[in-house]
Every structure is written in structure tokens, then in C-alpha cells.
Design a protein that fits this description.
about 300 residues
């Protein structure tokens, strides 16, 4: 013989359904946010209630619920448990609750979920066969504030020499030196590379003063080059630049050191933010006795490459 589960008949609609919570902050910040949920309603049908169920938002938890408030249920005692999104109030005592009775149930031990906004609850009373139901809603508030701080990219470069004039004596080992002061400050996360480059100096005809092509202790003949130093921060000179030897500038600026004795455009580099590095290239020229007289000009270009 086949047996059938008892069917529940829906008799009527609960009226005056309300739902309030003692703490309506959603558990977005995982702070716990324990709360007591209180439901109130007016019964629709005279029933000997055995249970009342209340749906709660997804994510609500409550491993050990208690019932601190019970009103209008004729002296019945009750216990509560949460399964999924349904809290079940189990009643014992067998009191008949007349239609039109005002009922209030407070269940403690809930922890709010992370859902925010208006959430619906369905209240269902049951005597094991017949049910009445009604709905209400309450609002769960977001208890967090998203903070965004935007730090703008910043790089400051100064050069105290917009022009230099050198007057070496032809045919002598004397070298005229004019130091320049460059400063760099930046908040680039990966720091920066400062490169310098210059072509040979030209008199506008066919005569040039070439860049020194190898590292030397002192310039001789006709050549242009520089020493360099760095201070005030953690930047380091890039090979082959040195404070004690001369090398000419590379013809084009690059962020990749050539190494060895060849002219290299990367002058200094640092792998993080800096509040102020001071770079001092000391430019120099030597002139052979047979270098054609004239005014030789050129431009030293600085390329500052930040790593944001």
C-alpha cells in the first residue's frame, strides 16, 4: 500500500505582518553583526499551532537560536532552529489560537548575512495540516565605506645649466670644465632612468669635435666628454660613467646601458621613489693644435624615464 505525505491546506493570509531587527547592518565587513529578529502579525484562522516558520535572507546564520520573546500564543513554550533560509519556531503546549490574535515572536542568535537593501520575509503558521501566511520586509544597511585614494604621478627634474661655454687652449693638455647640477624627484613605483646624449660638436661646416669614444683618465687631442657623480639619494651611476674618468655622450638617448668603455646614454638609475637625487655631470673639452678655429655647438639632451 502506498502512503502519501499529508497535504497542507492554505486557509488564509496573516495580517499586520511586520519584521524588525535589532541590528540591521549587513555583515559585509565580517564583523559578526549578531541580531534579534522580531516578527509581529495577526492570525487569520483559529488553529492549534505546532510551528511557525520565518524566511530570512540568504547568508543569514544562527547555530544556537533562543526565543527571548513570545506573545499571544496562549502560554505555549517554543524552541527555534535555522535550516538554510528558514527559521522554524516549534511550539509545545497545544493551545488553540483564535483568529484575529496579535502575535509577536522574538528570536535571538542570528548573524546577518552580507545582503543589503530591502529583504522579504514570509511568515507561515501551521497546525500540521493547515497553514496561514503573510509577508513583510525590512532593510539591511551596508556597513562599509569603500575608500579610494588616487596618488597622481609626479616627476620633477631641474637643470641649472641651460647653456655652457668652454674655452680650452688648443695644443695643450688643459681642459676647461664646467659642472652642471641636475636633480630628480619622483614617486614612480619602479624608480627612473636618467639618460643623456649628444652628437659631436660642429662649427656648421665640415669640422667637428668628436665625443670621447673610450673611457680615459684625461681628455687629449680634440674631444668632448664628461665625468659624473650622484648624491642625495640612492641612485647609482650607470657604467661606464664615473666621477674619476671621462667618457663622451652617446649619439642617441636610450634606457639600456651599453657597458664596457663605449659611450652610454643612461647616466643614473634608481629602482624606487626618491625625494631628491642630485646628479653632477662635469663637462670638458680638449682641443688639438690643428683643430680649425671657430664656434662649435651642440646640445646635450636629457631623457628622464619614470617607471610608474
Amino acid at each position: 500500500m502506498l502512503s502519501e505525505s499529508p497535504a497542507f491546506a492554505t486557509n488564509g493570509s496573516l495580517t499586520g505582518v511586520s519584521w524588525s531587527v535589532s541590528n540591521n547592518t549587513a555583515n559585509v565587513a565580517a564583523e559578526g553583526n549578531a541580531a534579534t529578529y522580531t516578527w509581529a502579525f495577526t492570525t487569520a484562522t483559529t488553529l492549534t499551532l505546532t510551528s511557525i516558520t520565518f524566511t530570512v535572507p540568504t547568508g543569514t546564520t544562527g547555530a544556537s537560536l533562543t526565543v527571548p520573546g513570545l506573545y499571544g500564543l496562549g502560554g505555549d513554550s517554543a524552541s527555534a532552529a535555522l535550516t538554510g533560509t528558514t527559521a522554524t519556531l516549534t511550539l509545545t503546549g497545544g493551545a488553540s489560537i483564535a483568529a484575529g490574535t496579535s502575535v509577536e515572536v522574538a528570536i535571538a542568535g542570528f548573524t546577518n548575512g552580507t545582503a543589503t537593501g530591502s529583504k522579504l520575509t514570509t511568515v507561515t503558521t501551521s497546525d500540521g495540516t493547515n497553514t496561514d501566511s503573510g509577508t513583510a520586509s525590512t532593510n539591511f544597511a551596508n556597513n562599509t565605506t569603500s575608500v579610494t585614494v588616487i596618488v597622481p604621478e609626479s616627476l620633477t627634474f631641474t637643470n641649472n645649466k641651460s647653456s655652457i661655454t668652454l674655452t680650452p687652449v688648443p695644443g695643450t693638455p688643459a681642459v676647461e670644465q664646467t659642472p652642471a647640477t641636475l636633480t630628480v624627484s619622483t614617486n614612480a613605483r619602479s624608480g627612473y632612468t636618467l639618460s643623456a646624449c649628444a652628437a659631436s660638436l660642429s662649427d656648421g661646416h665640415s669640422n667637428t669635435i668628436p665625443q670621447q669614444s673610450t673611457v680615459v683618465a684625461g681628455l687629449t687631442g680634440s674631444a668632448f666628454g664628461a665625468t659624473a657623480s650622484v648624491s642625495g639619494g640612492s641612485a647609482s651611476l650607470q657604467s661606464p660613467w664615473s666621477s674619476s674618468t671621462y667618457i663622451g655622450y652617446a649619439a642617441t638617448c636610450s634606457v639600456t646601458p651599453t657597458g664596457g668603455g663605449a659611450p652610454s646614454s643612461p647616466l643614473v638609475a634608481y629602482a624606487g621613489p626618491t625625494s631628491g637625487d642630485t646628479i653632477t655631470p662635469t663637462n670638458a673639452a680638449s682641443i688639438s693644435a690643428t683643430q680649425a678655429a671657430g664656434t662649435y655647438t651642440g646640445t646635450i639632451n636629457y631623457l628622464l624615464t619614470p617607471g610608474y
